[in-house]
Amino acid sequence: xTTWFVTGTSRGIGLELVxxxxxxxxNVAATTRSADxxxxxxxxxxxxxxxxxxxxLTDGTAVAAAVRATTDRFGGLDVxxxxxxxxxxGAVEEATDAEVRRMFDVQIFGVWNVLRAVLPEMRAxxxxxxxxxxxxxxxxxxxxxxxxxxxxxALEGLSDSLAAEVAGFGIKVNVVEPGYTRTDFLRTSSLGLxxxxxxxxxxxxxxxxAHLAMPGTQLGDPVKVAAAIIDVAVSGNAPLHQVxxxxxxxxxxxxxxxxxxxxxxxxxxxxxxDVTPA
Length: 278
What we know:
49% of the residues lie in helices and 15% in strands. By secondary structure, the protein is an alpha/beta fold. The chain has one domain: NAD(P)-binding Rossmann-like Domain (Rossmann fold), CATH 3.40.50.720. The strands form two sheets. The chain has a seven-stranded parallel β-sheet with strand order 3-2-1-4-6-7-9, sandwiched between helices. The chain has a two-stranded parallel ribbon with strand order 5-8. Strand 6, helix 5 (146-166) and strand 7 (171-178) form a beta-alpha-beta unit. Helix 1 packs across helix 7 (222-235), helix 3 runs parallel beside helix 4 and helix 4 packs parallel to helix 5. The longest helix is centred in the middle third of the chain and has 29 residues, at 97-125. The protein is globular.
């Protein structure tokens, strides 16, 4: 029986992931902002294998205690899924210092707290699997998504370095990049908006309105996305970067082509900065 530690399980992909893991017969420690809401959403099925944890991921001491509670309850920990996060739509100049810090607190410092709590035991055991849930916006960027992209780009870099650091300990790391998925991620319950809009960003205002009208029309199926995340961990044969969704795949390919073109366009200037041989 596999034991999972999953963050961000109040709704969306995280909730569906917990539901499927319990159906599989696995043990699940699920962090949430509301244990009551999580329990109501899941019902009684598999409740004996569920450890709901009301947790502020930015509190490192509380995260460490939650991980200890997980290992005490289930006797170990096999897979960690860092899924907690939310969106933010606004121009760079519109994001306040508090909004920027909150985004990174949840999506980077929260992940770091979880990693510091779980890695010592995984290293000692010589095994473990970490899945970091990023986004296609961790591989490409759109106007208005600058703050969210900044956090997800940071998560991508963290994941790449982490994978190289812990491979020798028998710990596997994957980062998954879903595209637009049919959850409430684009509703105001999961999407931050600037408190004060700046003049001149009409295109971003129109894009915001379009995104708020999008729920229910996204290409991605959260049931299939959750199943794919489970398969990434269980199969052990997924690439380090696993895009999810045809839109994510297409956008990632486009970004690679654009980046390759940029690098080639700057080749002559790049080579000109080397030290000239004596």
